[in-house]
Amino acid sequence: MTDSTSSPRVDGGTAPAAAAPSGQSGHVLRSSPLRRLLKSPTGLIALVILAGVVLMALLAPLLTSQDPNHADLTAVLLPPGGDHLLGTDSAGRDIWARLVFGSRLTLAAAAVAAVVAIAIGLPSGLVAGYYGGIFDGVANWSTNVLMSLPAIIVLLAVRAAVGPSVWISMVIFGVLLSPGYYRLTRTAVQSVRNELYVDAARVSGLSDGRIISRHVLSVVRAPIIIQTAIVAGLSITVASSLDFLGLGDPTVPTWGVMVSDGFKNIYRQPISLLWSSLAITLVIGGFVLLGNALRDSLEDLEKTKEKRAKPAGGRRARPVAVEVGTEHHLLKVTDLQVAYPQPRGGRKVVVDGVSFHVDRDEVVGIVGESGSGKSQTAFSILGLLPDNAILTRGAIQFDGAYTVAPGEDHVTQSRLAPLRGKRIGYIPQEPMSNLDPAFTIGAQLSRPMVTVMGLSKKAAKQRALQLLASVGIPDPNRTYHAYPHEVSGGMAQRVLIAGAISCEPDLIIADEPTTALDVTVQAEVLDVMRELQQRLKIGIIIVTHNFGVVADMCDRVLVMQDGSLVETGAVRQILHAPQHPYTRMLLSSMLEGKTPMTHLLADSTAGSDR
Amino acid sequence: MTTDTLLTVDDLVVEYPGKAMFAKPFRVLHGVSIEIGAGQTLGLVGESGSGKTTLGRAVLGLAPVTQGTITFDGQDISHASRKDRRALSRHLQVVFQDPYTSLNPSLTVGDILAEPLGIQGITGTEARARVKELLDRVHLPQDAMSRVPREFSGGQRQRVAIARALALRPKLIVCDEPVSALDLSTQARVLDLLLEIQQTTGVSYLFVSHDLDVVRHVSHRVAVMYQGEIVEQGEARHVTEKPDHPYTQRLLLASPVPDPDRQAAKREARRAHAAAQAA
Predict the structure, then answer these.
(1) Looking at the structure, do residues A290 and A342 belong to the same domain, yes or no?
(2) Per its UniProt record, what SMART domains does this chain match (chain B) (predicted)?
(3) If you measure CA to CA, which chain B residue comes closest to A26?
(4) Which among A207, A397, B236, B250 counts the fewest CB atoms within 10 Å?
(5) How many contacts, defined by CB atoms under 8 Å, are there between A and B?
(6) CB atoms B260 and A610 under 8 Å
(7) Do B263 and A610 touch (CB under 8 A)?
(8) Which helix (DSSP H) or strand (DSSP E) does residue B58 occupy?
(9) A285 and A372 in one domain?
């Protein structure tokens, strides 16, 4: 693990016009779906198989000189070889010719079913998803009816009524498959219907038709393609099954009819069963593999993960002692560097050489803009970085013991797990998404106390109620029994703060704890945190972009830019006399106390409304 | 003020149908009245759920008008049809909060900017020239045209969204929290851009935000919304510095300042204010 780090860094702000390809440069991360499809082995195999069958169907007359329907009763059930490449069937027809011409019909049957299903499912799904209302209701009801019909029985009934025709069967089967497309389309459309870019198009005056074709259709394209690959395989199965049961049209050569014939003569000429079964298996398998490969290439993001070098010697050995004279720090981060491997090789460094410490009864703020590495630093301490993150350098020690010793490339969960939740608390940014909607707040609060602290259920409830009261919740009992959706965002954040302090931690890491809250609620939540901190004498790390929050809460401040620490110091020093140009720039971006441009304008023009 | 009033919203009520079949409709706006003069900015402040975004959406025709009237440029647009809206879109535009979802991820920036032009029948070389001009105006490089939104940072995307709003040289742009998803330094630059555009083109803004500092920075007049009503409105300096209504006072006192000592004093003032209100 050497530092072969080419580090293209995330560009946080709006780079001025000159700084060309900046921002979250997407083109680094993704290659085209087709290329990814060809690169995946399953995709390639599937495409080769299917391309082979399509070629076979197209070139059928060139591949054989035999008539697939020419019966020769003098040459029944011949073994492969001679005039008949794969032998003959029970009517003396050439198996190779039937196989080749049968591929035409098999593919055409699959295509008919898919086209019919798409033709019904896609437009109705678009309309139902986009407009909703009565059509949506009726269409949902109809699809439910269709889906409850057993396909094979419907097909048998149709065959009994109108006679054996593979085309009619496939049209009916397409109708029966259409609910799959309908549901897929409807769900996809509903999810984009309320996207802001659709609203923007509406404001621009775009007609519904154009909105659907431009903005909505592109979203359903990928799932439809994937579904079609699967539906094609399914149609071939059903068409072949009908033929096999002897319900198909006996006058046309299909693989199903061939399997049926081979099966009847399995004791007389076993090999004749093989070819058609093999063809069906290969094609269906090809479609299934294609569907899977398409899903991977169209929907999933590539995730790059480096293979970790196995550490020399046993990993669990040596509990390294921390540097003498630093044991008294509650938390100490030394020269931390965090990197992510890139798809094109190399690594992207997101935290670079960060060192700081936090003592008991101290509030430290980490300030920076998006992409500055402030959250990554916090997550490294918590051991909550994604799997593919690498701690390329540095060490983290908590209360006199390493959680990440020098030379280790990732957080040892076994060392951190007993600390997290118990001695290190965490307050997240989005209160709502951090509460499980399926459980009451009380259950979520008291459960960790039962499992981590070993309290009885009753004692845990008692304590949970106390905690809820201590974070300023007016009616703890009601909140205890409420579900997360029944409380406001500010209340939810208080619940999480109560959760963070429930096991009496020494350190709390708060990641943008008030960013999602209204300013009046923010003030109250900060009051709660400050009061708790002063009462419990805990250390707090607040990750924030808001200097107002820093001024309100922190004793010391770290300013981060592009993964590095650019300035650290006492809060007054940083806010009153910032040294680093970046800190100055950030502070000067604050609007508070500035003379607004419009005031100047208003004074010069008619500033006399009302 | 009456001669060059661009937008008048009079006693606007917006209700959404209840979730259950015969449930009582949910009233989001309870009789809201505002006015925006030509070339002016009305800042609309309020907390989440106050109805400020709904007011903006009602003006744009994206929220149902139950009662009251919206008059734009002398024309009643409270119940404008789709066809009227198409004509209106030339003069009435929008910049949304989230630059990550307000741009279609699968279209290039050039296509996004050409879309409103195409609707008004501007295509081909004329549209291309206009797109270039727009990119210039929002200080984005020309090669942005052939790139897709995900290649840009948040601030740059918001510039694209502003350029799209400007494409048809509108008279009014509804800015719905246009900077709240952006970083501090980016935020300041986008606000400067909006002000610069107002100075050169004379466009009016309905500027919706939860941040009093931001609203103070860009507005001529400010209206404060609370629970679907406007509790205070008036000249920007007055409302944002010496507000009359207790709610606005609370809002002002709650926003923290980047100075520990002043912030401590402000905190005390906020507590005193809360105590006084409770008494």
Answers:
(1) no
(2) AAA (SM00382)
(3) B151
(4) A207
(5) 219
(6) no
(7) no
(8) helix B52-60
(9) no
Tell me if B237 and A599 make a contact (CB, 8 A cut-off).
Answer: yes
Interior CA angle at A550 toward A546 and A555, to 5°?
A: 165
Facing residue for A522 by CB, picked from B62, B148, B254: B254
Question: Which one of B115, B189, B218 has the shortest CB-CB distance to A14?
Answer: B189
Give B43 or B183, the one with higher predicted confidence: B43
Q: What is the spatial distance between Cα A565 and Cα A253, in angstroms, rounded to a whole number?
A: 75
User: A243 and A105 in contact (C-beta within 8 Å)?
Assistant: no
Shortest CA distance from B137: residue in chain A: A17
Q: Would you call B60 and A549 a contact, using CB atoms and an 8 Å cutoff?
A: no
Q: Which helix (H) or strand (E) holds B43?
A: strand B41-45
SS3 for A547-606 is HHHHHHHCCEEEEEECCEEEEEEEHHHHHHCCCCHHHHHHHHCCCCCCCCHHHHHHHHCC
**How high is the pLDDT of residue A219?**
81
Q: What is the CA radius of gyration of chain B?
A: 20
Question: Per residue in B130-160, pLDDT tens?
Answer: 999 999 989 899 888 988 888 888 888 999 9
Q: Residue A491 belongs to what domain range?
A: 331-588
Give the domain CATH number at A420.
Answer: 3.40.50.300
Rounded Cα–Cα distance for residues A98 and A56 (Å): 12
Give the Cβ contact number of residue A440 at 10 Å. Answer: 17
Number of domains in chain A: 2
Write phi, then psi, for A364 (nearest 5 degrees). Answer: -115, 130
Q: Is residue A23 part of a domain?
A: no
| Chain B environment of A557 (Cβ under 8 Å) | none
Closest CB to A11 among B140, B153, B258: B153
CATH class as words, domain B1-91+170-242: alpha beta
| DSSP 8-state secondary structure symbol assigned to residue A216 | I
The CA-based angle B107-B109-B115, given to 5 degrees, is: 75
Query: Are the C-beta atoms of residues A84 and A66 closer than 8 Å to each other?
Result: yes
Q: Match 């592109």 to its residue by tokens.
A: A218
3-class DSSP state for residue A508?
strand
